[in-house]
Amino acid sequence: MANHETIFDHLKKQIPVDEEESLILNRDSSVGLVIADVVNGFCTIGSGNMAPTKHNEQISKMVEESAKLAREFCDREWPVLAFIDSHHPDIPEIPYPPHCIIGTEESELVPALKWLESENCATLRRKDCIDGFVGSMEKDGSNVFVDWVKEKQIKVIVVVGICTDICVFDFVATALSARNHGVLSPLEDVVVYSRGCATFDLPLHVAKDIKGAHAHPQELMHHVGLYMAKGRGAKVVSKISFET
């Protein structure tokens, strides 16, 4: 490794994501947008145990890009599904500290996306687990996400949200497995929009002073999340454009 090269630079060479440059969408794309957990408890400064404590550029950019995409989809009356992390106060989500308790502001969409609550094109799904696919299961055995794909005849889903390597990746991996097993027809492709994703930052020197915490360097884990998603069969793109 060259002296001027950082460990992260070296890692990116060893496990490159090789993002496809652009995804072009049009009225014939049969596409749906999935937004994972863009809620105050993960995105708004000071909003709980899992929220940033100060301005975080990666998270801010993710919120901006997610809101921009959601507006583009709703303006075209294309389907949007937003997962909202919502936990019962007496049921912990190990290994994470209490967060996004249902009924609190933590468990609400960020201000930039609150307007989705009144959009006919949007389906909002509260979930009490990491994986939105699992969180879409109903007691009668049905699945809100699966039904959404089938009802809207979605062939491509674009996924954005937080955290790249946790909620986004788990959902993407499960959706791809379900597609491969023929239970998500007519879904063909899962696309992760890298600029519309983010994860949290917990440096090693901070994690050492928190009992039970694990270091979680933001840039590294964001990259690993994208790499793992692509390894499971997702397409990873850094730009999305729309044909008129």
Short description:
The protein is built from eight helices and eight strands; from the N terminus they run αββααββααβαβααββ.
Spell out the blueprint of helices and strands.
Blueprint: H1 7-14, E1 23-25, E2 31-36, H2 40-43, H3 57-75, E3 80-85, E4 122-127, H4 132-135, H5 144-152, E5 156-162, H6 164-180, E6 189-198, H7 204-207, H8 218-231, E7 235-237, E8 240-242
Parallel strand pairs: 1-8, 2-3, 2-5, 3-4, 5-6, 6-7
Helix pairs in contact: 6-8
If you compute it from the alpha carbons, what radius of gyration comes out, rounded to the nearest whole angstrom?
A: 18 Å
Mean pLDDT over the full residue set: 92
Helix-strand string: HEEHHEEHHEHEHHEE
Query: Which structural category do the helix and sheet elements fall into?
Result: alpha/beta
The proportion of strand residues reads 15-25%
**Percent helix:** 25-40%
Structural notes for this entry:
The chain is of the alpha/beta class and 244 residues long. Helices cover 32% and strands 18% of the residues. The protein contains eight helices and eight strands, in the order H-E-E-H-H-E-E-H-H-E-H-E-H-H-E-E. The radius of gyration is 18 Å and the shape is globular. The relative contact order is 0.20. The mean pLDDT is 92.
Features:
244 residues; alpha/beta; six-stranded parallel sheet; two-stranded parallel sheet
